[in-house]
Design goal:
Elements (H helix, E strand, L loop, with lengths): L1 H11 L7 H24 L1 H14 L5 E2 L6 E2 L1 H14 L14 H14 L4 H21 L3 H4 L4 H17 L4 H14 L11 H21 L8 H9 L37 H14 L6 E8 L28 E2 L8 H4 L3 H11 L9 H4 L2 H7 L2 E5 L1 H7 L11 E7 L4 E6 L12 H15 L3 H12 L7 H5 L9
Parallel strand pairs: 3-5
Antiparallel strand pairs: 1-2, 3-6, 4-5, 6-7
Helix pairs in contact: 1-8, 1-9, 2-4, 2-18, 3-4, 4-5, 4-10, 5-6, 5-8, 5-10, 6-8, 8-9, 8-10, 9-10, 9-11, 12-14, 14-16, 18-19
């Protein structure tokens, strides 16, 4: 039984022989996630306030911290709010092999569970690593049909990792973790039609909260089918049988051994825009051209880079995007956003904003920023195409390489034609980001949120030495910001 096998792994697998790369990449993911949460609390508090209001109404034992505030709440509500905040700006890491954002489901649950139990930094680190492995393996076992059918992998897979991590921290038996994993099969949810709204980040918070709830219920003797995971995989693997070989020997090797498994973002938007933004900046700087001189911008993308794009899962004739389409490139429906949240999933906006203003910041994903006249004018010149040749190239590489290939053709009014191409996303296995870049991101986000320089440097040091931290509350205390709640 798959659930029993994963449960034994979560309960019993030792990390003594795990390569140092596993711990290094885990710490990168943890620090990166804290950066995303802190910036979200500062820059989009209006989207967090409704959740905080409801959490206060629900009440509960105040045993776990809401990051970026002075509030404590119940362990389930803390997981919900922190998971939501971590994914709110779409600035949290991506897991290329399963095209998801696993940390925003796993870490909030693990932190809340550990804090309530007065757990250590080592507890959190182990829970996160074990949970990440379980979520990754579940995602890899699924066939690509889940994305084509409109599901959101972040919450679909992340809940399993969060359950495994909670069970590890609380020293649950394998039987208790197995039941919690079975419950997670009925709790996993999230649809891509909600991208570009407040509900997309809610998927992550909801998964974290449900993982905590399932874990608490399992401890009280709540049961689930021993074959629930098999049923889950069969249900969501539309395009073929699940690849259960990924579930045979979790931790052999560890997913986090591979560079780029955790892929931090440089921009607060969907990772499908990473190369679009990178080349919007590069083309302007390399060729010294202006927006006024451009006649047309054509972006040719592999479907993997289009799967989450606003309005761009459809051809120009309104038919759904066919992933295995053969033939010449096909133009897609325009993805001109109407709001800042929609802009996070628009290739037109990603290229235009980057070309005109450089690397987008959180301020560039507001309703006001979208309405800028120069951005609106340049977006109208962008055409996005599904290119089956880029599909073929991308399938030559493993998912961990993040082969979201894109070609750019810029036609100038003076007759010049500019061409650029990139196969691999920055930050993935073939173009990895260093911990130094993540520390820089954290310093910027934490400073913007109002954390004092001393706290910022203490936080970085605590994460780097997480296995030696006596109480995880020592780390969480650094994020208390005394604002009017």
């Amino acid at each position: 039984m798959i659930a029993a096998k994963l449960a034994r792994f979560a309960a019993e697998k030792g990390l003594e022989k795990a390569p140092q790369a596993v711990f290094d990449q885990a710490k990168m993911g943890i620090l990166d996630w804290f950066a995303a949460v802190l910036l979200a609390v500062k820059k989009d508090r209006a989207s967090i306030d409704p959740l905080l209001k409801v959490v206060k109404q629900l009440g509960g034992k105040p045993s776990a911290s809401i990051i970026g505030s002075s509030l404590k709440t119940s362990v389930t509500s803390a997981a919900l709010v922190n998971g939501y905040s971590g994914h709110l700006l779409d600035y949290d890491e991506t897991t290329p092999p399963v095209r998801s954002h696993l940390t925003s489901c796993i870490l909030p649950a693990v932190l809340a569970f550990a804090e309530e139990r007065k757990g250590s930094g080592r507890d959190v680190l182990e829970g996160y690593i074990v949970g990440y492995e379980v979520a990754l393996r579940i995602g890899q076992a699924m066939t690509p049909g889940w994305m084509r059918e409109g599901w959101h992998g972040t919450s679909l897979f992340g809940i399993f990792g969060a359950v495994a991590g909670c069970g590890r921290i609380a020293r649950y038996t394998a039987g208790e973790i197995r039941n919690a994993l079975g419950m997670a099969c009925s709790m996993a949810s999230g649809i891509s039609r909600n991208f570009g709204t407040m509900t997309k980040p809610f998927h992550a918070g909801h998964a974290a909260k449900n993982a905590v709830l399932a874990s608490l219920l399992a401890k009280e003797g709540f049961t689930a089918s021993e074959q629930a995971v098999e049923g889950f995989l069969d249900t969501y693997s539309w395009s073929g049988k699940p690849k259960t070989e990924y579930l045979e020997n979790p931790g052999e090797p560890w997913g986090l051994e591979t560079p780029g498994t955790i892929n931090p973002k440089l921009y607060p938007c969907c990772h499908g825009l990473a190369t679009t933004i990178e080349y919007g900046i590069l083309i302007r700087e390399k060729y010294g051209i202006s927006a006024d001189g451009i006649r047309e911008i054509r972006i040719y993308s592999a479907p993997k880079a289009l799967s989450a794009m606003h309005s761009q899962n459809y051809m120009d004739n309104g038919e759904p995007l066919v992933w295995d389409y053969e033939g010449p490139p096909r133009q897609l429906l325009p993805g001109i956003p109407g709001t800042g949240k929609e802009a996070k999933f628009s290739k037109e906006y990603g290229f235009a904003a980057a070309f005109l203003y450089g690397g987008p910041r959180s301020e560039d994903f507001t309703d006001e920023a979208v309405r800028r006249s120069d951005v609106q004018e340049l977006m109208q010149k962008v055409r996005v195409y599904h290119d089956c040749e880029l599909d073929k190239i991308s399938y030559q590489y493993p998912e961990g390489d993040w082969p979201y290939g894109e070609r750019f053709v810029i036609e100038m009014k003076d007759g010049r034609v500019i061409r650029e191409e990139q196969i691999f996303v920055l930050g993935a296995a073939r173009r990895p980001l260093s911990m130094d870049r993540v520390e820089e991101k954290f310093r910027i986000c934490a400073s913007t949120s109002g954390l004092a320089p001393g706290r910022i440097e203490r936080t970085i040091a605590m994460v780097e030495g997480l296995e030696g931290l006596e109480k995880i509350s020592q780390l969480l205390r650094q994020f208390r910001l005394h604002r009017q709640e």
